[in-house]
Model the fold of this input.
Amino acid sequence: MRTRYNVFSLARNAMRHHADWPKAWRSPEPKSSYDAVIVGGGGHGLATAYYLAKEHKLTNVAVLERSWLGGGNTGRNTTIVRSNYLWDESAALYEHAMKLWEGLSQDLNYNVMFSQRGVLNLAHNQHDLREISRRVNANRLNGIDSEVLDAKGVKDYCPAIDLRGGGRYPVLGASLQRRGGTARHDAVAWGYARAADALGVDIIQECPVEGFRISNGRVQGVQTGKGYIEARKVGLVPAGHASVLAERAGFRLPVTSVPLQALVSEPVKPVLDCVIMSGAVHAYISQSDKGELVIGAGVDKYVGYGQRGSLPVTEETLGAICELFPIFRRMRMLRNWGGIVDTCPDASPILSKTPVEGLYINCGWGTGGFKATPGSGHVFAHTIATDRPHAINAPFSLDRFRSGYLIDEHGAAAVAH
Amino acid sequence: MLLIDCPYCGPRAEVEFSYGNEAHIARPLQPEALDDDDWADYLFMKTNRKGVMLERWVHSHGCRRWFNVARDTVTYEILAVYPMGAKPPKLPERSYL
Amino acid sequence: MAQRFRLSDGGLIDRKTTLSFTFEGRRYRGHPGDSLASALLANGVHFVARSFKYHRPRGIFAAGAEEPNALVQLGEDARTEPNLRATQIELYDGLAANPQHCWPSLDFDVGGVNDRLARFFPAGFYYKTFMWPASMWMKYEAVIRQAAGLGKAPSEADPDSYDKTFAHADLLVVGGGPAGLAAALAAARSGARVVLAEQDARLGGWLLSAAGVEIDGQPALEWVAAAEAELQSLPEVTLLKRTQCFGVYDHNFFALNERVSDHLPLAARDPRLPRQRLWKLRVKQAVFATGAIERPLVFRDNDRPGIMLASAAETYVRRYGVKPGTKAVVFTNNDGGYGAALALHRAGTKVAAVVDLREAPEGPLTAAAQAAGLDIFAGHAVIGTDGGKRIAGCRIAPLDESGKRAFGGGTPLDCDLLVSSGGWSPTVHLFAQAKGKLVWDEAQACFVPGDPGRPEQRSAGAANGAFDLTTGLEQGHAAGLAAAAAAGFKSKGRRKPAPPKAAGDGTMGFLPARFLYLVPSDRPLGQGGKHFVDLQNDVAASDLQLALREGYGSIEHVKRYTTTGMGTDQGKTGNVNAIGIVAEQLGRPLPEVGVTTFRLPYTPVTFGIFAGRDVDDLLDPVRTTPMQTWHKSNGAVFEDVGQWKRPWYFRRPGEDMAAAVQRECKAVRDSLGLLDASTLGKIDIQGPDAAVFLNRVYSNAWSKLAVGKCRYGLMLGEDGMVMDDGVTARLGEWHYLMSTTTGNAAAVLAHLEEWLQTEWPELKVYLTSVTEQWATLQLAGPNACKLLSRFTDLDLSPEAFGFMEVKTAEVMGVPARIFRISFTGELSYEINVPASYGQAVWEAFMREGETYGITPFGTETMHVLRAEKGFIIVGQETDGSVTPLDLGLEGLCSKTKDFIGKRSLARPDMALPDRKQLVGLETEDPSEVLPEGAQLTESVPETPTPASPVPIAGHVTSSYMSPNLGRSLALALVKGGREKLGQRLYAPLADGRTLACKIVSPVFYDPEGEKMRA
Done:
């Protein structure tokens, strides 16, 4: 029986100088065969494995991670969680995730520090105001908490902001989702890994997938850096590398992988108690529990697998932050990094069966995948276990690019984070 | 920040250019003759190469002309620049997992 | 107050001038040339900070950019700045610094209780608790947030300015130490354009604190001065001091941060100069001569004030003329550490002991120390320290051969200073940022540059693992020559130039050494006392071991779980020790454990420089029309449309917006209005294939449009979605003028160019944006013709100048293009005149138009009037997901030709009956205006904010009170709406009201179009 994490076990272990804590997860060698293999040990992949085991009692499962778990976009994002999406289909998916977030620490017995400090999307002109009103009204009918703030409401909620926006981008109002916020990104990967491992899932790191064995249109197994592993069901959750794996499985995807940057400042005492996003000036910002300002930048426009961004994007982002928060101009950038995000033409993800039987794909989250982690894993596990999409992810099929039933979230959120 | 050698203006910083994604995707001459799958393939499917990618750029804050670039999408090294309509030069294969 | 620890001579400070400064409100004195840290030490102040987690007292640990402890809050009010390293702040008169992260004072800090409870706060403790009850997390978190953070952000807007500079050079040399100077000299003498960047205010690097070193027969600092003078004299050389190269980007692009005026007293700062500057530098070649950073030894309770790096002690003595203690213990594992012992000894500090991990100490400095009679304890270790706010003593004990065990409880030694040296780590940050491969140098126990990411980037000197001065100078010299040659500059003269030659003690590197990453003590690790690895984040060796015990096995996991190396110093002193300790615990070779990714910036960089001058109004250009002056002085209220400022409405005294818009709307319908439509995009299209081209890019047919005629066109993306619309006129056989929406003008031009150049290069068509060449005045209303006729000889009779025609004529003697088109549904002319005449014509229209009560109107009135007519606005009725079929514009989609987007319209889901379609809405209460963005339902939801989803039937895209109809009207996109005319819908609003409305035709006014055709 695994040690449960709580204040008592912490105190008990403190008395023993923390010498007896068990491993959060095992590091087994891969078996030669699994009922299902999940390719990609980020948040979405680990969540998929966890829900396969928990909800579908499929425990003979391996998660294969090319490097260290949680080291892709899970460990590189700006941790924003919200569900106030425009379209019914997206709202259902992200709200499904939101409900899971709300009990996640307790479910996993791992504090993922889900902090519902509120997410503001700023409006800087009449068009923005109209779009915000449209989205807020749609959210409410979809059962999602959402409200419109006027400029004074924004200032009350976020005193650090300059409503003048430096004069060029005045803040006219905002949408607010109070249940939105942030979570500790690494903890999400670790928490899911620990909980999946406890249910019997093998988590295998430093195990790149090099190819697939496919016969009669059906997947038989995966070729990995640690040898061939047989599996009749394979779920791909490879984020930026979706196209690379799809190509090896013989099909193409409508995704483009581009660098996305983020950065943090040095830590300071609490000064920003909510998440601020602005599509017009392309920036979003929050303050972590450690005190760092966590700032997201836009994407570089070209295909890039380099996990690094370019200076002009940093300039544009910090220029926007300095405009909205003139008090932050003397703050200093501590770390700047990049991830690879796979973006879809309609800025909505793909959670789908593929042309190969037994092979499923979860990708295309663009810049906003972190917030969906629990919901994505939950419905993707359903898809893999039952070979049928869950009602929530049915609209997010690959087939929509053929039929034209796109879920275009561009218009509503110029920055789809 | 990339330094892109515009065939018409010479080397210029990345900020002067806009990106046009994958090169050599010809618009079908008779779109009506395509089935939905083939049309979707033309419209949306991408090679999204990790390795040497043939792609289109336009010098939007310069001469406004389009051209092709062969670029390694991991190292970001630019291996060739060639005009629209030209065939890509022979380039080494680079494969990354 | 006297500087009790200032040496009477030596150092690079100006004792003749005394500067006054305060720390925590107490006044101290220092000299020009001091850092804040050296000045505090001169006054006997070691204890300057509290650590992040346990609030333990901390002192000045280093003397440069690597400082983990001595972070202070500098300055006050709007100019305050948190987390600055005291070691890098140049002292100026009047400087005011304060400790941070402590309350109520540095000396008595309530947060210090954390240290007592440290046992309950191991690495990652927060992942294991604060989960019950779930509802309490936000309360727990608020406490955690208050406890975290370091300094305070300013609470007022930054009054200073920042700037950016672009530069190009043949060679960038980063680092002005011996290797960097040798590289810069070698390259610059060949004529290459060289930029030399040094983070310090002085060139020289470690030579500034070296003793007895000669280069080319001169004392080292004289050689440095001569090198600086020579570089200054060369016209192609740019010397940047106080400039940190913090980032390497692709294709040899570098970002540097120059601190222009931070080092000056406030009153001496030139307000015309920026505070700091971002250099954006593109070079052909680069040499990284960034030196190396000393590593401390990790022993128990190695964090008390008074404990510092050996090299830092040397620097304080030699560069700053400060005696950092009265009684010192030197703890080293290498010969180099004896340099500090000797420096302290010569400065009059009593060196109580040199404790050397090596069994048989040897080396040139060791020998010198032996000769000086210092007490050396070979094969010994410091196994613990005592003291509170200053180290009071330590205990030393012999080690076993393995170095894993100490014998006995140790011998106590009194001291007020303990310096340690654990070896050196080359500053490989820039090299690694550029994706260079690091290799492990076993002999020197450090990561050194291996294969460079790019061949144009070279490392030299200590940054390259060359710790002895002779080799460093040779490498710098060779790198400079090679870089210059690669950039096309051959060295002058026939003889190959020779590198500078070094002589003297302390030039031979730091070896030999015995490397131990974890110094044992007499108690098990983690029990009583801590071996700190990351001083700033309070990460101890026991935390690293805990992470590994719990399965966080990758070095990246260890870093993230324990936060080691994640402080503001980014682990400059701690990271290699952490990797060493992890490797030992895992039983794997250190290089196999590897490093965590090196991220920019090398040191933290002010946000302001990334914005530069592009702040406030300059963030984004403001575009205004030629009539802007008139608008501003006639009550216009503006709205932002893209970068444009457009008059939204014209307010008269006493009016609110609603009243103004109602008045403007009436005026246009009843008599005459004037709109500034100059912002609409205008694209001049010429060439023999122009008509073919238009046929392909517009969904409707263009081949039969006659010269002198206009047509409304709908432009789709290849995905079939409406992208833009506008009227295009045929001005000549091969000549068209296309108009686009205001916000899309640039995007449409780019779209057209892309198709033309990449898909249809055979078409002879040329596109030119002429948006800003013409001012566009729109006369609208029944009296439009009458007014216009006063200004032109053109025959304006309907027979001579019909609807949807264009004429070239003179208006007021100004050459003009007149389009008889209408977006308001009234008789309307759009008059294009050259931009510079725009305001004159506008004013004349206003003057003459008084007869008809001419009324200037803004975009809001235009929107109302076009909505009365059911005309769409792209971006309002459309959002990238709307097809022409959805808008009821299938008549504009040619059946007989192909066009961009046509095939997509034939996809199966494009014809689904429940797609959203454009309809009109009328509220049941005609005085009630639906809010734009309201969502619609088919039945009244039980509550306006239902807990579970309610099916959405559509949404309101445009909605206004129409004075002409005497009621409100709205346009909406409704699922299957066109089949549902007459059906009732509901708009549940956030304020609790639910408005009922009825689906009607989207054309509310003059459905036959008689008015505009009149």
Observations:
- The domain at 3-83 of chain B is CATH 3.30.2270.10 (Folate-binding fold).
- Chain B is about 10% helix and 35% strand.
- The two ends of chain B are 24 Å apart (CA to CA).
- The first strand of chain B starts at residue 3 and ends at 6.
